[in-house]
Amino acid sequence: MQDEHSSERLHKDTKAGFIAIAGNPNSGKTTAFNRYTGARQHVGNYPGITVEKKEGLAHLVTGETVTLVDLPGTYSLTAYSLEEVVARRVLAEDRPGAVIDVLNTSVLERNLYLSVQMLEMGIPIVLALNMMDEARTRGVNINVQRLEELTGLKCIPTVAKRGDGLDLALSEAVKLSEKTKGRVDPLVISYGTDLDAALTEMVPLVEKASLLTDQYPARWVAMKFLEKDKDIMTRARRVNNEVSDQLLATATRVEDHLKKTLNTYPEAVIADYRYGWISSVIKNGVLTGSSEPFERIAFSDKLDMVLTHRVGGPVILFAVLYLMYFFTIQIGQFPNDWLTAGFDWLSEFVGDHMASGPLKSLITAGVISGVGGVLGFVPLIMIMFFLIAFLEDSGYMARVAYIMDRVFRFFGLHGASIMPFIIGGGIAGGCAVPGVMATRTLRSPKERLATILTVPFMTCGAKIPVFLLFVSIFFKNHVPTVMFILTLAGWASALVVALVLRKTLIKGEPTPFVMELPPYRVPTLAGICIHTWERTWQYIKKAGTIILGISILIWAAMTFPSLPADEAKLYEDQIAQITAQAQTQGKSEDELAEMVTDINNTQETETLRHSLAGRLGIAMENVTRPAGFDWRTNIALLGGIAAKEVVISTLGTAYSLGSSEDEESLSLSERIENDKATWHTSNAVALLLFTLLYSPCFVTLAMTKQETGKWRWLFFSLFFNLALAFVVAIMANQLLTAMGLGA
Description:
By secondary structure, the chain is of the alpha/beta class. It folds into 4 domains: 4-180, 3-Layer(aba) Sandwich (Rossmann fold), CATH 3.40.50.300; 192-292, Orthogonal Bundle (Helix Hairpins); 312-503, no CATH class; 578-738, no CATH class. A 7-stranded mixed sheet has the order 2-3-4-1-5-6-8, sandwiched between helices. A two-stranded antiparallel ribbon has the order 7-9.
């Protein structure tokens, strides 16, 4: 890469290997380099190309000597020009001990873009805030200390043409070089749902194949495939052609997806989020005065003056959350009722055309009542996913983090924790699994762990059907309001638990908050519809696979063992006796049918209670009675540990198995509403709160183990959440019962 003889001559006997100087054209980088090296320069070209290479010796104030390499002036580290390719390869292959990044502070936002790219490569840098005199003349003031806090970088004000601050910048760069040996943890920025998911898939492939990872971080290599960087892809093919093809296939798939959904491409999305990260830093008390804005984010800045206002921002946020539920319920109620009625008709139709026996019971009670109870909420779920997709595609979702940062810091979390919360269901409909995975963007291990353990308190898409079922029964006239309150309860629980954890088990100092704020976009209808269908299809697939499997297992547990033959014969004898008495007493056929139905209902209930699941549910009643949970509810909640939707499918199966012929046409909500002996407002509220708080699903627990690397946090999440939910459920049931809303 470099002229080896000159490099050896200049690097010999220097204290820190060599220090590179980088910066945008016209940032004062060359002026700084000339000030440092004077006549002690070697000027030539990089081998085989016309790009100029400058190296020189600089003296530290201590009298020691260090080699400086002046990188070509460039705005970025993409591969659009030879200068960019050269700068990138010097940083990756020659690996300077540290980089002095010279910035024109009058246009700080634009200059920081190169800084962000170097940080993503894991390059240790010192920021030389150059032309400070010109910036002050323009009325631009930089809060250097705040910039250091937010970026974690040493920032030195300089005026290169006079030499002000240059010695200090070089001294800090040498110290950084000695401390880091030229490598630091790469900066990780979230690039939105689509790209983050792709990177999660691609990074393990890069790591397993050791694809250029001796020079670049694995995530950075994966990003270059998403950007279709020809230089990196060509070099990667020389290492492993098969893995390169897999990465390219993923990148192409994501590119096509972005074109369909957002009418954009990965490189543009990556640039937007980088600029968003920079914008968040600048807005967070770093810059005052009039700095030249980017045209691409000028409109976003104007909107943010309203949407992220200190007072107005939270008000707008709460209004947005409430309106989401309002429109979901108002628009989705009719198709939801139609779909539920369709499953009820299907169950009745199958029941009328099949002979009695285990197969009929499996299909009607296990499959249709179980899975149908979950699929009945598809219209509501789809509308909610549509609204969430609109918020994400427009760029508003990222603003929620900015608004909530002050609150999060009070509770010991990082402002960036809000994105895992949102992804996990903070704005209802998410999933805790990707929410836990999204914590990878947090730099502090303590804040990351606290976030992982509290993400499951959010109102994920799996909890929504349970909430909608019981809220629509017991709070018919206030469904949006109660759903909104449950969402806030999830947030409040997560924050309180986080505060307790950060004060006890996970103590540690908070880290500064920087959150990427991408420019606002006008979402396309096609894009929103595609995102909505993707998530809805995942929900449907889950109901048709995982939920179906669990429903069948629970049906079996609720069906077997059946009543002993002698006990079953007692009910048969009762029916025969009543039939004979009815004939002698002259009772009508309707009266006889009613008496026979009562006996059959009693037999069905006893059969269910005698089953494996029934025995377990009954055994738990002594413990769960203070919360108002009967044996049917106990079974449903146990199944919900596997997946929260199973609560609905299990209740559907339980009520179907124990129902009379007259009740076969009733929906699950109607059966629960008619079960006055079991259900009251008090235990319904207790069930809602228990479902909100109790143990995460199996997949989330597995992801918790994977992300923390420790089994103890899996068991903590399982048992702590279960205990917390149970205590809250008991308190709610007892309090509401005392208020006259219970049995």
